[in-house]
Amino acid sequence: MSALPASDRQALFAAAMPDEATARTLAFDWQIWARDDQLPPLHAAPDQPWRTWLLLGGRGSGKTRAGAEWVRAVALGLWPGEPAAARIALVGPTQQHVRAVMVEGVSGLLAVHPPGQRPVLEISKGQLVWPNGSIAQFFSAEDPEGLRGPQFDAAWCDELGRWKRGHRAWDMLQFGLRLGALPRQAVTTTPRAGVLLKRIMADPATAVTRARTVDNAANLAPRFIQEVTRMYAGTALGRQELDGEVITERPDSLWQRKWVAEARIQIAPELRRIVVAVDPPVTATENADTCGIVVAGLGPDGRAYVLADRSLQGRDPATWARAVIAAYRDFAADRIVAEANQGGDLVVNVIRQVDANAPVKKVHASRGKFARAEPISALYAENRVVHVGEFPALENQMCDFGPEGLSEGRSPDRVDALVWALTELMLTTTRDPVIRRL
């Protein structure tokens, strides 16, 4: 019976059960009808309870239903031996996602409750209130500071792979998860390989389960299963979106790690030109984007050599300007290339306050980041770019950069600086007979 669609189960109950109340109770008993992968795992040991249940699921695998049912159980105290959670956080990629998918969706919180248990949606307050007084508040990962202050017994995080400010939102949530004897959280997401997801999976307090799209075939259109299997089975995208696998290589990334690894060397040859490229952050706050600073040179063989990643996190203009000039001097560079879309002449002025004679070239982005990066990616594919040493942070961004940017929505600051440096060296015609040795 559990393999039947919900509508067929309800019809069967109506025909077989003389007591309507009993039929309704059975129909909403999730522990009867859920698949094993849709239920939270048992604690490893009484003294080793999990704090995070991470459900990695394919598209349409039933992970949203699993998350909603888990919240229903913690709000109403349905798990044996565990009291009801008084305060619950519902965190999604956006406020719209929380309401449209997690709350009002076909598998959302309002749909999974029987009439007598259903919470009340208070739109103006952005929250759900259950008859027993439990409250679930709505939060967007786009606004991590909104999680500063409130405190919770439990949290449900949906589609973590789409969180644009994932690390900050996650960290703020952890500080707020401090009520009750056992604060805990469920994370339901189609996996997109990223630093935050890997960090959560590596946490010993995380319990991981997986669900495939085909496992939920009874509740999906047969034609859908046939078509997506035909088109994507066995591909990296299919393994991620259908099987819920964490693919370390993003299938739509502009760069592949093997391109970098196969061309890596440890000592640069004599170089004809050296440039320092800088992608300055828009703001100078504590949470500002990283200032991308990349040094690269042009070799006598016509290839580009990436020499250093001097990027630094969210500092004031004077600090990153000093870092740019330090790189310029350390590598005896010929030019500084600075993106000036945000600051215009201010960017140049800040750099020249540190070194009045620094040769700075302003560049302006007339196309999107992906379009600017495509020809640079082609240079890597053609083995025309070499990394002198290893640059993990830069290379991680490169291999996580696709048509929609980075998987966690952060600014591709290091990649931007790399693109400007290599564009200046490889795609811009200049005359420079000077040969430099590092």
Using brief descriptors, characterize the structure shown.
single chain; 438 residues; alpha/beta; Rossmann fold; Nucleotidyltransferase, domain 5; 2 domains; eight-stranded mixed sheet; seven-stranded mixed sheet; 18% strand; disordered C terminus
Low-confidence stretches are 431-438
Q: How much strand content do the residues show?
A: 15-25%
Helix content: 25-40%
Q: What is the topology, as strand order, of the major beta sheet?
A: 3-4-5-2-6-7-1-8
The second-level CATH architecture of the largest domain is 3-Layer(aba) Sandwich
The overall average pLDDT, rounded, is 85
Going by helix content, strand content and strand pairing, the class is alpha/beta
Per CATH, the class of the largest domain reads Alpha Beta
What CATH calls the topology of the largest domain is: Rossmann fold
The tally of beta strands, per DSSP, is 17
Largest sheet: 8 strands, mixed
Oligomer designation: single chain
Assign an overall shape. elongated
Note the total helix count.
16
Distance between the termini: 72 Å
Number of domains: 2
Rounded to an integer, what's the Rg over CA atoms? 26 Å
Task: Please characterize this protein's 3D structure.
This protein is an alpha/beta fold and 438 residues long. It folds into two domains: 34-241, P-loop containing nucleotide triphosphate hydrolases (Rossmann fold), CATH 3.40.50.300; 257-426, Nucleotidyltransferase, domain 5 (2-Layer Sandwich), CATH 3.30.420. Helix content is 34%, strand content 18%. The protein contains 16 helices and 17 strands. The strands form three sheets. An eight-stranded mixed β-sheet has the order 3-4-5-2-6-7-1-8, with helices on both faces. Strands 9, 10, 11, 12, 13, 14 and 15 form a seven-stranded mixed β-sheet that branches. A hairpin with a 2-residue loop joins strand 16 and strand 17. Helix 1 runs antiparallel to helix 2, helix 12 packs across helix 13 (345-354) and helix 14 (369-381) crosses helix 16 (413-426). The longest helix is centred in the first third of the chain and has 14 residues, at 63-76. It is elongated and about 85 Å long. The chain starts with 5 loop residues before the first helix and ends in a 12-residue tail after the last helix. Residues 431-438 have low confidence and may be disordered.
